[in-house]
Amino acid sequence: MNKNTLTAFVLMALVVFGFMAYENYARREQMAEQVVLDSIAQVEAQKEAKVRQKELEKKAEELADTLNPLFEARQGTASTTVIENELLRVTLSNKGGQLQKVELKDSTYKSREGGNVVLFDGHDQNMKLMLDGKTANIVTDELFFTPTDVTKDGVTMHLPIASGSLDIIYSLKPNAYILDMDVKATGLEGFFPSKTNEMQLEWTENMKQQEKGYDFENRYSTVTYRDTDGDTHELSVSGGDEEEDEFEEKVKWITYKTQFFSQVLIADAPVTVNTMSSAYLENGSGYLKTYKTTFAADFDTKGVKPTCFHLYLGPNKFSTLKENEKLVNSDDDLDLQSLVYMGWPIIKWINRFIFLYAFDFLTGLGLNMGIVLVLLTLIVKFLVFPLMKKSYIASANMRVLRPKMDEINAKYPKKEDAMLKQQEVMKLYSEYGVSPMGGCLPMLIQMPIWIALFNFIPNYIEMRGESFLWADDLSTYDDIINWGFNIWGIGDHLSLFCILWCFVTVFNSIITQRQQQYAMTPEQQQQMGMMKWMTYLMPIIFFFSFNSYSAGLNWYYFISGLVSILMMWFLRKTTDDDKLLRKLEKRHAERKANAGDKKKTSSIMERLQAMQEKQLEILKQQQEARDKK
After folding, report:
1. What is the DSSP letter of 355?
2. Which of 9, 236, 372, 404 is the Cys-Cys partner for 362 at CB 3.0 to 4.6 Å?
3. Does residue 327 sit in the same domain as residue 402?
4. Does 193 lie in the same domain as 117?
5. 250 within 8 A of 227, measured Cβ to Cβ
6. Within a domain: residue 608?
C-alpha cells in the first residue's frame, strides 16, 4: 500500500468517525431538548389535572350544598328590623337572627356625646346558637333568617330548614327594659339525632366605654352570674389582662355589666356554663373589656316547649332592677338588685336600708346632687355627733389630767422605771375613771358609715351626668387640669375635689394627733412619732388613687372632713376645762369613798391596773432570783 492510499484511508476514517461523533452529539442535544419538552408538558399536564380536580371538588361541594338543608339559609343579603317600646329601641339583624343594636330612649341617661346611650352596635355583640343535626350543623350567625310577624314591639326571626323551621321570637314588654327571647323548633324531629336535648350558645361582646374615666369604670365592670343555690358571683375584675374560668355550673342568669348599665340573660330553666372569660381592651379604643361565655340550654327538638330567655337591657338602678325583675314571672328570687354593688354583707345592708332610702328621699325633693351630698353629710354628722362628743371628752379628760401625768413623769425619769411609771399612770386613770381608749371606740363605730358611702356613692346612678360647681359629672372625676397624656400614679388630670379633701384630711390629722398626745407618756409619744407622720402622709398617698375617683365621693369626703373640723372647734369652745376637772375630782373622791365596796364592779382601767401590778410583781420576783444567783 503506497503512501497516497494510506492517506486516503486515514482521511476517510476521520470523516466517518467525525460524522459519527457529530451525529451522536446532535442526537444527545435533541434528546435533552425532548426531555425538557416532556418535563414542561408533564408540568402543564399536572396543572391541568389539578385545575380539573378543583373544578370537580367545587362541583361536588356545590352538589353537596344543594343537598344540604341549610343551603338556601346561607344565601342572602343582610338587613335589619327595628322594634321598640317606651324605653328601648332594639335593632335586629336577619343574619344570625340576633340583636345588632340596643339604644336606651330614656332621656335621663345620656351618652358622653350627648345622645342616647347605646349599649352595643354593629359587630360589638354576637350571640350564636349551635345545634348538631344528622347531616348538617346549625350555627345561626352564618345563616340568614326571615323576619315575620313584625309588630312595633315584636318580631319572629324565621329560618326554614328542610320541611320545618327554627324560630327565634322577640317581644318587648311595655314600658320596661325586658326583651323576651324564645327559641322554638317546628317539624325538625327528623333533622336532629334522637338524643339531642340541648343547644350550645356562645355570647361575645366588646363592652362600650360609657363614662369619662376608663380606669374607674373598668373597676366596676365585670361578668356576673347567679347560681341555682341563690348565690351571686363575679368573674375577677382585677388582675392580669385576661381572666378565664372553666366550670360546669348551673346558673339562673348571666350579666355583662359596666359601672351603670347591664345586659342580663335570664333563663327560665337554668343553663350550664362551660367557660367564661374577660379580657381588657386598650384605653382610648372606646371599649373596656371583651366578655365571652359559652353555655348549654335545654332544647326540645319536637317544639312542644320553647327555650325561653329574658334579656334585661338597661340601667343599674336599684328600683328599676327590682321592678323589671317582677316582669320575668320567675318563681325564684333573682335578686337583680345585687348588680348595684353596695359592699360586703354588713356594709350592703347599711346601704340598702339606710342610705338608699335617704338618697332617694333627698333626690326626690328636686335638689342638685351636690346639695344632696351636703345635706346627707350634715344628717350623718348629726347622728354621730354624740359619739364624736364622747371621743372628744375622753381626750379632754386626758388634757385636764396632764399636770398630774407630768408629776408622774418627773417622779420616774429613768428608763428602767418605765414599768413603775406606767403603773402609776394606770392607777391615776383608774382613780379618776378615765380611759385613754375612750375616744377610739366611738370613732371605730363610724368606720362602717365611711366604708358604706365609699361603696354606695360611685354606684348610685343618679350621680351620673349631675353637674355641680366646676364638676360636669359627679359620677366621674372633675378634671380642672387635663394635660392629655398619662403620668404614672396620677393619670392625665388633676381633680380639685380630691385635692381639697386631702388638705382637709391632713388638717384633721393634725387636730387628732394633738388630742391624742395628752393620753401618752413622753416615751409613747416618741414611739408614735413615725405613726404620726404616716397619718399625715396617708391622705397624700390616697390622692394617687382618689384622683380618678368619683367627684361626688371626693366632695362628700371634703364636706365631711370640713364639718368634723367645725364640730371639733365647737366642742373645744364649749368645753370648760376647769369644770371638767372639778367633775373628775368629784368622781375621784367618790371612788375613794367606795374603795371598800367589794360588790362594786371594777372598771376596765382597774382591771388593767391589776394586771400590770401582777406583771410588776412577777418582774420583781425574777429580779430577786437573779440577784441571789
Report:
1. I
2. 372
3. no
4. yes
5. yes
6. no
Q: pLDDT tens digits for 198-244? A: 999 999 999 999 998 888 899 889 999 999 888 888 886 554 445 55
Q: Does the residue 627 lie in any domain?
A: no
Taking 50 as the threshold, does the pLDDT of residue 63 lie above it?
Answer: no
For residue 247, the one-letter residue type is F
User: How far is residue 16's CA from residue 548's CA, in Å, rounded to a whole number?
Assistant: 104
Domain, as residue range, for 106 = 77-341
Residue 306: inside a domain: yes
pTM for this one? 0.78
Q: Which residues pair with 504 in a beta bridge?
A: none
Report the 10 Å Cβ neighbour count for 160.
17
- List C-alpha distances in Å: 381 to 130, 375, 378, 384: 58, 10, 5, 5
Same domain, 321 and 365: no
Beta-carbon neighbour count of residue 202 at 10 Å?
Answer: 17
Q: Distance (Å, rounded) from C-alpha 22 to C-alpha 15?
A: 10
- Rounded to the nearest angstrom, the gap between the alpha carbon of residue 410 and the centroid of all alpha carbons in its chain is 58
Cα–Cα distance for residue pair 612/73, rounded to 1 Å: 88
306: confidence class by pLDDT, cuts 50, 70, 90: very high
d(CA 443, CA 38): 100
Q: Which of 146, 215, 209, 158 is nearest to 188 (CA)?
A: 158
- DSSP assignment of 211-246 equals SS-HHHHHHT-EEEEEETTS-EEE--SSSSSEEEEE
335 shares its domain with 423: no
Is residue 369 located within the same domain as residue 296? no
Rg of the chain over all Cα atoms, to the nearest angstrom: 41
Interaxial angle between packed helices 496-516 and 529-546, expressed in degrees from 0 to 180 and rounded to the nearest 10: 160
Q: What is the pLDDT of residues 340-384, one digit of tens each?
A: 988 888 888 889 888 999 998 998 898 999 999 999 999 988 888
Q: In what order do the strands lie in the sheet with 80-84?
A: 80-84, 88-93, 98-104, 118-120
Q: How many domains does the chain have?
A: 2
User: What CATH number does residue 222 fall under?
Assistant: 2.70.98.90
Residues 332 and 443 in one domain: no
Summarised one tens digit per residue, pLDDT across range 274-296 is 999 999 999 889 999 999 999 99
Do 279 and 256 share a structural domain? yes
Q: How many CA atoms lie within 13 A of 224 on its CB side?
A: 25
